[in-house]
Structures are given as structure tokens and as C-alpha cells.
Amino acid sequence: MRLDIVTIFPEYLEPLNVSLVGKARARGQLDVRVHDLRAWTHDRHNTVDDTPYGGGPGMVMKPDPWGEALDSVIASGEGDTRPTLVVPTPSGRPFTQALAVELSECPWLLFTPARYEGIDRRVIEEYGERLDIHEVSIGDYVLAGGEAAVLVITEAVARLLPGVLGNAESHRDDSFAPGRMADLVEGPVYTKPPEWRGRGIPDVLVSGHHGRIARWRRDEAIRRTALNRPDLMERCDPEVFDGRDREL
Ligand code: SAM
């Protein structure tokens, strides 16, 4: 998968060199290209913002550098390949595991993390007509800029790419994984030692009985979802619950 990120803070994306994403890059599974938006400015001060039409506080990112930057990145694609545009914005569609799965199936993502009060709307309209576009919010709060949102989205997408996680099965039972976990969060997990500060582990986990362990994990997922995310329980598809689930 290819990822292009256009930003005024390229150094903010340095965490993409470490851990899972960094290793995926080193193995050639991810081709990440970070671009400085100011490279497409032409004045002495490399200006990327201006005052908002209609007045009010804050500044708005100018369309000209964004237009030149996006044209240049799009033109660098092989043949007639086109990126999928991902625009981080608090006014976007909520970022979910289902959207992470959808994005992980795209061969090329182009991110436009903004600063100030965001990007002149005409840029989004212009490229929304030429490319597949997702305006994405990572939560109901306002960040100072979209770079942290790009890190979040990239990490969630990268771990779904074939071969990126050591164990291909390991995201199958994650919280929100499509299927039986779609509207559930995962239950608690334990490792050695069997006793720590007087606290043991649930006996079933050392029973060696796979069926009972799977049942216990599902019960705990349902309990924890009901406790911490009643909003998810309410919208849960009744079809995902079996008879035993309903007894809980
Ligand atoms: N005035 C905008 C509003 O109220 O919707 C907020 C602009 S915010 C200060 C600057 C940039 O940070 C946004 O354009 C976006 O790129 C990014 N951003 C802030 N919060 C975000 C969120 N919850 N999800 C995704 N991106 C966000």
C-alpha cells in the first residue's frame, strides 16, 4: 500500500518510522511519502493561510498550495492509478474499525491533515469530484491539527494489511472486528505468572478446554461492552447473539 501525507509539519509524522508501521515500511509492505505543503508556496514567507471570508477568529488554509500539492502527488502515480483521499476533520464521518477495513483495501491513500480552521472548502469539492474521498473524524473533540489523526488512522489500517501482524489471526477477535465482534469490545487478557500480588487468573484459561475458553471470552466481551459501551449494546445486531449470549 502507498500512503502520501501532505502537511506543514513533516516532522510530526516521524512516528511512522517506528514499531509496526516502521517495520512494515522496512519490509516494503508500506510505501510512505511525507510532503511539506510549503514546497508548493511561491512567496517569501511560504504562506499557507489567510483570513476567513465572512470574518471571525482564526485563519483558513489557502487553496492554491493545496491544489498544486495534490496535483503533483496525483500525477506521481503509475499509469492512471488514483489515490483515495482521506481528509481528517472533526466534521467528518466517525473513524471506526469498519472504515479501517475499508481503507485497508485501497492500494493508495492520500492524507490532507490541516491546521488553523481547516482547508478552503473548494479544495475538498474539487478533489471530491476527481477521487474517492473520505472526510474522517477520529472523535468528538478538536485537535490543533490533523497529523495526530493521520497517525491514528495509519496505525489502524496498517495492522490489517496482509503480513503486517505476525499472526494473521490476531485481529479476528479484536474489539469491533467485523463479524461476531462488530459491536463488542474485547474482554480482559492475562499472561504469566499465574499469580501476581495475590491475584490469580480465571481457572478456565488453564483448563485446556478450547470451547470453554472461547465461551468465557465471549461472555466477558459482552459483559464489558454492556458496562463500558451501552451505546454499542443498543445497536447490536440481534443475529450476532446466540442463545447462551442472551442469558447474560
Ligand atoms: N474549526 C474546525 C472545526 O471546528 O471543525 C477545527 C479545525 S482544527 C483546529 C484543525 C485541523 O485539525 C482540522 O482541519 C483537522 O485536519 C484536524 N482535526 C482536528 N480535530 C480532528 C478530529 N477530531 N478528527 C480528525 N481531524 C481533526
TrEMBL record:
| Classification via CDD domains | TrmD-like (cd18080)
Q: Where in the cell is it found?
A: Cytoplasm
Catalytic reactions on record: guanosine(37) in tRNA + S-adenosyl-L-methionine = N(1)-methylguanosine(37) in tRNA + S-adenosyl-L-homocysteine + H(+)
Please state the Enzyme Commission number of this protein. Answer: 2.1.1.228
One annotated GO molecular function: tRNA (guanine(37)-N1)-methyltransferase activity
* Positions bound to S-adenosyl-L-methionine: I138, G139, D140, Y141, V142, L143
Q: Which Pfam families match?
A: tRNA_m1G_MT (PF01746)
Query: Taking every annotated instance into account, which residue ranges of this chain make up the domain tRNA methyltransferase TRMD/TRM10-type?
Result: 1-234
Domain of life, per the record? Bacteria
Where is this protein chiefly located?
cytoplasm
Q: Name one GO biological process term.
A: methylation
Its keywords, alphabetically, are: Cytoplasm, Methyltransferase, S-adenosyl-L-methionine, Transferase, tRNA processing
Q: What does this protein do?
A: Specifically methylates guanosine-37 in various tRNAs.
Which family is this sequence assigned to? Belongs to the RNA methyltransferase TrmD family.
Q: How does it assemble?
A: Homodimer.
Q: Which NCBIfam families match?
A: PRK00026.1, trmD
**Record's protein name:** tRNA (guanine-N(1)-)-methyltransferase
Provenance organism = Streptomyces meridianus
This chain is encoded by the gene named trmD
